[in-house]
Design a protein that fits this description.
Elements: H1 13-23, H2 31-44, E1 48-52, H3 55-66, E2 73-77, H4 83-89, E3 94-98, E4 120-123, H5 135-145, E5 148-152, E6 160-161, E7 164-165, E8 172-176, E9 189-193, H6 199-206, H7 212-216, H8 236-246, H9 249-253
Parallel strand pairs: 2-3, 2-4, 4-5, 5-8
Antiparallel strand pairs: 1-9, 6-7, 8-9
Helix pairs in contact: 1-8, 2-8, 3-4, 3-6
Bound molecules: pyridoxal-5'-phosphate.
Length: 254
Protein backbone atom coordinates (compact mmCIF):
# COMPACT_ATOMS: atom_id res chain seq x y z
CA UNK A 1 0.00 0.00 0.00
CA UNK A 2 1.24 3.52 -0.81
CA UNK A 3 0.83 5.77 2.29
CA UNK A 4 -1.09 9.02 1.75
CA UNK A 5 1.70 10.95 3.47
CA UNK A 6 4.97 10.28 5.25
CA UNK A 7 5.78 12.56 8.19
CA UNK A 8 9.24 14.16 7.93
CA UNK A 9 11.23 14.05 11.18
CA UNK A 10 14.29 16.21 11.84
CA UNK A 11 15.67 13.87 14.53
CA UNK A 12 15.36 16.25 17.50
CA UNK A 13 11.62 15.91 18.16
CA UNK A 14 11.92 13.31 20.95
CA UNK A 15 14.93 15.12 22.47
CA UNK A 16 12.89 18.29 22.93
CA UNK A 17 9.89 16.34 24.22
CA UNK A 18 12.21 14.71 26.79
CA UNK A 19 13.47 18.17 27.80
CA UNK A 20 9.90 19.37 28.26
CA UNK A 21 9.15 16.31 30.41
CA UNK A 22 12.34 16.81 32.46
CA UNK A 23 11.45 20.48 32.93
CA UNK A 24 8.25 19.43 34.69
CA UNK A 25 5.98 21.85 32.77
CA UNK A 26 3.79 19.82 30.44
CA UNK A 27 0.65 21.92 30.12
CA UNK A 28 0.40 24.74 27.58
CA UNK A 29 1.87 28.25 27.34
CA UNK A 30 5.34 27.23 28.55
CA UNK A 31 8.85 27.59 27.14
CA UNK A 32 8.29 25.73 23.86
CA UNK A 33 4.95 27.41 23.18
CA UNK A 34 6.64 30.80 23.58
CA UNK A 35 9.60 29.77 21.40
CA UNK A 36 7.22 28.75 18.59
CA UNK A 37 5.09 31.90 18.93
CA UNK A 38 8.16 34.19 18.98
CA UNK A 39 9.56 32.40 15.94
CA UNK A 40 6.42 33.06 13.91
CA UNK A 41 5.97 36.65 15.07
CA UNK A 42 9.59 37.55 14.32
CA UNK A 43 10.08 35.66 11.06
CA UNK A 44 6.75 36.55 9.45
CA UNK A 45 5.73 39.76 11.22
CA UNK A 46 2.41 38.41 12.54
CA UNK A 47 0.91 40.87 15.03
CA UNK A 48 0.36 38.02 17.47
CA UNK A 49 0.75 34.25 17.13
CA UNK A 50 -1.09 31.81 19.41
CA UNK A 51 -0.40 28.10 19.14
CA UNK A 52 -3.59 26.01 19.04
CA UNK A 53 -4.44 22.32 19.10
CA UNK A 54 -5.43 22.40 15.40
CA UNK A 55 -6.25 24.74 12.54
CA UNK A 56 -9.90 23.84 13.14
CA UNK A 57 -9.53 25.29 16.64
CA UNK A 58 -7.77 28.38 15.28
CA UNK A 59 -10.71 28.88 12.90
CA UNK A 60 -13.16 28.47 15.80
CA UNK A 61 -11.26 31.12 17.74
CA UNK A 62 -11.34 33.41 14.69
CA UNK A 63 -15.09 32.86 14.39
CA UNK A 64 -15.63 33.80 18.05
CA UNK A 65 -13.35 36.85 17.71
CA UNK A 66 -15.21 37.97 14.58
CA UNK A 67 -18.27 38.43 16.79
CA UNK A 68 -20.56 36.66 14.33
CA UNK A 69 -23.87 35.12 15.34
CA UNK A 70 -27.04 33.53 14.01
CA UNK A 71 -28.12 34.94 10.66
CA UNK A 72 -24.75 36.44 9.80
CA UNK A 73 -23.29 35.37 6.47
CA UNK A 74 -19.74 34.15 5.83
CA UNK A 75 -18.25 33.76 2.35
CA UNK A 76 -16.22 30.55 2.02
CA UNK A 77 -14.79 28.90 -1.11
CA UNK A 78 -16.79 25.93 -2.37
CA UNK A 79 -13.56 23.95 -2.68
CA UNK A 80 -11.99 23.54 0.76
CA UNK A 81 -11.74 21.34 3.84
CA UNK A 82 -14.82 21.25 6.12
CA UNK A 83 -13.25 23.29 8.95
CA UNK A 84 -13.23 26.57 6.94
CA UNK A 85 -17.04 26.51 7.05
CA UNK A 86 -17.68 24.45 10.20
CA UNK A 87 -16.07 26.97 12.55
CA UNK A 88 -18.65 29.59 11.49
CA UNK A 89 -21.59 27.16 11.35
CA UNK A 90 -20.94 26.53 15.07
CA UNK A 91 -21.61 30.25 15.68
CA UNK A 92 -24.95 29.95 13.85
CA UNK A 93 -23.78 31.62 10.63
CA UNK A 94 -25.07 30.96 7.15
CA UNK A 95 -22.32 29.84 4.77
CA UNK A 96 -22.34 31.40 1.31
CA UNK A 97 -20.10 29.43 -1.04
CA UNK A 98 -18.01 31.24 -3.64
CA UNK A 99 -16.80 29.52 -6.79
CA UNK A 100 -13.19 28.69 -7.66
CA UNK A 101 -11.01 30.34 -10.30
CA UNK A 102 -11.07 28.75 -13.74
CA UNK A 103 -7.43 27.72 -13.54
CA UNK A 104 -6.95 26.81 -9.84
CA UNK A 105 -9.08 25.70 -6.89
CA UNK A 106 -8.77 28.97 -4.94
CA UNK A 107 -11.67 31.38 -4.43
CA UNK A 108 -12.26 33.57 -7.49
CA UNK A 109 -11.93 37.09 -6.05
CA UNK A 110 -13.96 38.49 -8.97
CA UNK A 111 -16.98 36.39 -7.90
CA UNK A 112 -17.00 37.50 -4.24
CA UNK A 113 -18.55 40.96 -4.36
CA UNK A 114 -21.83 39.82 -5.94
CA UNK A 115 -22.31 37.52 -2.88
CA UNK A 116 -22.02 40.34 -0.35
CA UNK A 117 -25.31 41.31 1.37
CA UNK A 118 -26.05 43.48 4.40
CA UNK A 119 -25.71 40.30 6.53
CA UNK A 120 -22.17 39.47 5.29
CA UNK A 121 -19.57 39.71 8.05
CA UNK A 122 -16.54 37.60 7.09
CA UNK A 123 -14.65 36.33 4.03
CA UNK A 124 -12.53 33.18 4.45
CA UNK A 125 -9.98 32.91 1.61
CA UNK A 126 -8.30 29.47 1.61
CA UNK A 127 -4.75 29.36 0.21
CA UNK A 128 -5.13 25.89 -1.17
CA UNK A 129 -1.87 23.87 -1.36
CA UNK A 130 0.03 27.02 -0.38
CA UNK A 131 -1.09 28.90 -3.51
CA UNK A 132 -2.02 32.46 -2.54
CA UNK A 133 -5.50 33.88 -3.18
CA UNK A 134 -5.76 37.33 -4.76
CA UNK A 135 -5.42 39.15 -1.43
CA UNK A 136 -5.32 42.68 -2.89
CA UNK A 137 -8.80 42.26 -4.37
CA UNK A 138 -10.15 40.45 -1.29
CA UNK A 139 -8.84 43.06 1.17
CA UNK A 140 -10.24 45.84 -1.03
CA UNK A 141 -13.73 44.26 -1.00
CA UNK A 142 -13.45 43.73 2.77
CA UNK A 143 -12.45 47.35 3.36
CA UNK A 144 -15.28 48.76 1.25
CA UNK A 145 -17.93 46.55 2.90
CA UNK A 146 -16.46 46.61 6.43
CA UNK A 147 -15.87 42.84 6.48
CA UNK A 148 -13.38 40.75 8.46
CA UNK A 149 -10.95 38.56 6.51
CA UNK A 150 -9.87 35.27 8.10
CA UNK A 151 -7.17 33.61 5.98
CA UNK A 152 -7.38 29.82 6.10
CA UNK A 153 -3.64 29.26 5.69
CA UNK A 154 -3.82 25.63 6.92
CA UNK A 155 -1.71 24.55 3.95
CA UNK A 156 0.31 27.75 3.62
CA UNK A 157 3.05 27.90 6.24
CA UNK A 158 6.00 29.90 4.83
CA UNK A 159 4.07 30.82 1.68
CA UNK A 160 3.81 34.32 0.23
CA UNK A 161 1.63 36.73 -1.73
CA UNK A 162 3.63 39.47 -3.52
CA UNK A 163 6.39 38.98 -0.91
CA UNK A 164 4.02 39.14 2.08
CA UNK A 165 3.65 36.04 4.26
CA UNK A 166 0.24 34.41 4.03
CA UNK A 167 -1.61 34.69 7.33
CA UNK A 168 -0.24 38.22 7.83
CA UNK A 169 -2.55 40.04 5.39
CA UNK A 170 -6.09 39.38 6.66
CA UNK A 171 -7.35 40.43 10.08
CA UNK A 172 -6.56 36.89 11.25
CA UNK A 173 -4.88 33.78 9.86
CA UNK A 174 -5.21 30.07 10.72
CA UNK A 175 -2.51 27.44 10.20
CA UNK A 176 -2.31 23.66 10.54
CA UNK A 177 0.55 21.48 11.78
CA UNK A 178 -1.40 18.30 11.15
CA UNK A 179 0.75 15.34 10.17
CA UNK A 180 -0.17 15.77 6.49
CA UNK A 181 1.24 19.32 6.28
CA UNK A 182 4.81 20.49 5.57
CA UNK A 183 5.59 21.50 9.17
CA UNK A 184 4.00 19.08 11.60
CA UNK A 185 3.24 18.39 15.26
CA UNK A 186 0.89 15.40 14.88
CA UNK A 187 -2.18 17.55 15.49
CA UNK A 188 -1.54 21.27 15.93
CA UNK A 189 -2.34 24.72 14.68
CA UNK A 190 -1.87 28.45 15.10
CA UNK A 191 -3.99 31.59 15.07
CA UNK A 192 -2.34 34.77 13.87
CA UNK A 193 -3.86 38.14 14.70
CA UNK A 194 -2.90 41.13 12.60
CA UNK A 195 -5.57 43.54 13.78
CA UNK A 196 -4.66 44.72 17.26
CA UNK A 197 -8.36 45.10 18.18
CA UNK A 198 -8.57 41.32 18.60
CA UNK A 199 -5.34 40.62 20.53
CA UNK A 200 -6.45 41.03 24.15
CA UNK A 201 -9.61 38.97 23.68
CA UNK A 202 -7.75 36.26 21.74
CA UNK A 203 -5.58 35.40 24.76
CA UNK A 204 -8.68 35.15 26.95
CA UNK A 205 -10.59 32.88 24.54
CA UNK A 206 -7.42 30.75 24.19
CA UNK A 207 -7.19 30.18 27.96
CA UNK A 208 -10.75 28.93 28.67
CA UNK A 209 -12.26 32.41 28.91
CA UNK A 210 -9.90 33.52 31.69
CA UNK A 211 -7.41 36.37 31.89
CA UNK A 212 -4.70 33.92 32.98
CA UNK A 213 -2.13 35.24 30.46
CA UNK A 214 -2.40 38.73 31.98
CA UNK A 215 -1.92 37.20 35.45
CA UNK A 216 1.26 35.38 34.36
CA UNK A 217 2.64 38.63 32.95
CA UNK A 218 1.94 40.30 36.31
CA UNK A 219 -0.64 42.69 34.82
CA UNK A 220 -3.43 41.64 37.23
CA UNK A 221 -3.06 40.25 40.77
CA UNK A 222 -5.51 37.39 40.28
CA UNK A 223 -7.22 35.79 37.32
CA UNK A 224 -10.81 34.78 36.76
CA UNK A 225 -13.49 33.86 34.24
CA UNK A 226 -14.18 36.91 32.10
CA UNK A 227 -15.45 35.74 28.68
CA UNK A 228 -16.37 32.76 26.52
CA UNK A 229 -13.56 30.49 25.31
CA UNK A 230 -12.25 26.97 25.40
CA UNK A 231 -9.04 25.04 25.96
CA UNK A 232 -7.50 25.98 22.64
CA UNK A 233 -3.84 25.78 23.68
CA UNK A 234 -1.67 22.71 23.01
CA UNK A 235 0.52 21.02 25.62
CA UNK A 236 4.27 21.62 25.75
CA UNK A 237 4.79 18.11 24.34
CA UNK A 238 3.21 19.23 21.08
CA UNK A 239 5.10 22.52 20.84
CA UNK A 240 8.41 20.79 21.78
CA UNK A 241 7.90 18.50 18.78
CA UNK A 242 6.97 21.50 16.62
CA UNK A 243 10.08 23.43 17.69
CA UNK A 244 12.31 20.69 16.24
CA UNK A 245 10.51 21.20 12.95
CA UNK A 246 10.67 25.00 13.01
CA UNK A 247 14.43 24.96 13.57
CA UNK A 248 14.63 23.18 10.21
CA UNK A 249 11.88 25.00 8.33
CA UNK A 250 14.09 26.05 5.42
CA UNK A 251 15.36 22.51 4.83
CA UNK A 252 11.87 21.05 5.15
CA UNK A 253 10.39 23.59 2.74
CA UNK A 254 13.11 22.83 0.19
C1 LIG B 1 -7.84 24.23 4.07
C2 LIG B 1 -7.88 23.56 5.41
N1 LIG B 1 -8.45 24.20 6.45
C3 LIG B 1 -8.48 23.64 7.69
C4 LIG B 1 -7.94 22.40 7.92
C5 LIG B 1 -8.02 21.81 9.30
O1 LIG B 1 -6.75 21.63 9.86
P1 LIG B 1 -6.58 20.77 11.20
O2 LIG B 1 -6.54 19.33 10.80
O3 LIG B 1 -5.25 21.23 11.78
O4 LIG B 1 -7.70 21.09 12.10
C6 LIG B 1 -7.33 21.70 6.87
C7 LIG B 1 -6.75 20.36 7.10
O5 LIG B 1 -6.34 19.67 6.22
C8 LIG B 1 -7.29 22.29 5.59
O6 LIG B 1 -6.73 21.67 4.55
Amino acid sequence: MIPFNKPFLTGRETEYISQAVAGGKLSGNGVYTKKCQDFFEQRYGFGKALMTTSCTDALEMAAILSGVGPGDEVIVPSYTFVSSALAFVRQGCRIVFADSCNDNPNIDADKIERLVTERTRVIVPVHYAGVACDMDKIMDIALRHNLIVVEDAAQAVDSYYKGRPLGSIGHMGCFSFHETKNIIAGEGGMLTINDSRFIRRSEIIWEKGTNRSEFFRGEVNKYGWVDTGSSFLPSELVTAFLWAQLENIDVIQQ
